[in-house]
Amino acid sequence: MAIPGDKYLIDVEDIKRFRPLAEVDAARINPYILEAQSHDLRPILGDALYSDFMKNFDNTNVLYDHYRDLLNGKEYTYQGYTVAYEGLREMLAYFTLHRFVVMNGIHFSRFGTVRKLNGEKSEPVSTEELRMVTSDLKSNGIRAASLVTKYLT
Q1: Which element (helix H / strand E) includes 152?
Q2: How far apart are CA 16 and CA 19, in angstroms?
Q3: C-alpha dihedral over 18, 104, 141, 55, to 10 degrees?
Q4: For residue range 125-143, what is the model confidence (pLDDT) as tens digits?
Q5: Which residues touch 128 (CB under 8 Å, ≥6 apart)?
Q6: pLDDT, tens digit (0-9, with 9 covering 90-100), for 54-64
Q7: What is the helix, strand, coil percentage profile of the chain, to 5?
Q8: pLDDT digit string (tens) for 27-52?
């Protein structure tokens, strides 16, 4: 459950831009969004910038245009080349999904991580399949994080 005053930089619809996702209740995925923000984004921005960013990313004052660009993306010039920067949403989507896939089965299923079949039936996902999926999600998050760092530089 979210703490009053928590701000979410992304939502389920943002995540769906990067990976297909069944209908997932926001209450199930929001804790993982907050973890991705705190554990994956905060170290990149540092405590002071992270704190100010979280307070002002949605501030419409022109002084915070850079925050909106950081979150939403923009084109910028790097070493004479135009770069299309996707914004923090991509990084947060992948890190959120990684956390969700790893932890969701443990917290919400008494049988562990399962694959849904027909109706109410399901079968366990093999450790290798789970490892492959989570590795891919984390790898995409790390790649997106490097683009965030490059943009900040």
Answers
A1: helix 127-152
A2: 5
A3: 90
A4: 777 877 888 888 888 899 9
A5: none
A6: 999 999 999 99
A7: 60, 10, 30
A8: 889 999 999 999 999 999 999 999 99
